[in-house]
Amino acid sequence: AQSVTQLGSHVSVSEGALVLLRCNYSSSVPPYLFWYVQYPNQGLQLLLKYTTGATLVKGINGFEAEFKKSETSFHLTKPSAHMSDAAEYFCAVSRTTYNTDKLIFGTGTRLQVFP
Amino acid sequence: DAGVIQSPRHEVTEMGQEVTLRCKPISGHDYLFWYRQTMMRGLELLIYFNNNVPIDDSGMPEDRFSAKMPNASFSTLKIQPSEPRDSAVYFCASNDRGGTEAFFGQGTRLTVV
Fold first, then answer.
1. Nearest to B42 among A34, A95, A107 (CB)
2. Chain A residues within 8 Å of chain B (Cβ atoms)
3. For the segment B18-70, what is each residue's pLDDT rounded down to a tens digit?
4. Which residues of B touch A46 (CB under 8 A)?
């Protein structure tokens, strides 16, 4: 069963506009949540993560995400898009049960940034 | 540390041939993951190991696929026989415990013709 759902396989924004990439998860225990970015022909790089503590987490390149348990969401935002943000973004979850540490990814969202 | 190292970076092989992909995790990491990435199916977890032991191989597509981790510094993913539908980018990743950042290799782009 899919544990992570990313709404929107493609998102397009203008440079300087707000970026919002959506992620919802399913888990039977408090999850660990991640956002990764993939640039063309490269591996995945961690943007930010939530494990415990503060529900608003800040990552690299000005990105942040908020863990909302009531909505089972972990949406990624950036106030002002830059051309260099164009990439594919993956939401991931681990620890979906107390005995599971496998890292499951969503299907990804390709972000395009227009000048 | 040089990060997660995968080899080869590119592999082109003929249908029916055996293919072996290799991964060296970051030293000290005791979790290792193998993923397959395709346009159609995205990033799929194939199998993961903890302390060299396979924990969950439910993502392995069929018996043609096998993975081993003979020691803490080396893992292989083997496809025998290979088929064109196996063409994909295969990633290896490692971390030192659940909930921490998984570091990815650069991937192996496999093309089966």
1. A107
2. 32, 34, 36, 42-46, 49, 51, 90, 94-95, 100-108
3. 999 999 999 999 899 999 999 888 899 999 999 999 999 999 988 999 999 99
4. 101-102
Tokens encoding B12? 């082109």
Give Rg (Cα) of chain A.
14
Q: What is the pLDDT of residues A54-73, one digit of tens each?
A: 999 999 999 999 999 999 99
Measured CA distances, A72 to A4, A27, A29, A68, A105 (Å): 10, 9, 11, 6, 15
- Joined together, the tokens standing for residue A103 give 């890292």
DSSP string of B42-84, one letter each residue:
EEEEEEEEETTEEEE-TT--STTEEEEEEETTEEEEEESS--G
CA dihedral sign of residues B48, A101, A58, A7: positive
CB-based contact A94 B45, cutoff 8 Å? no
Task: Supply the mean pLDDT for chain B.
Answer: 93
Burial class (CB in 10 A: 0-12, 13-18, 19+), A104: buried
CA distance A7 to A72: 13
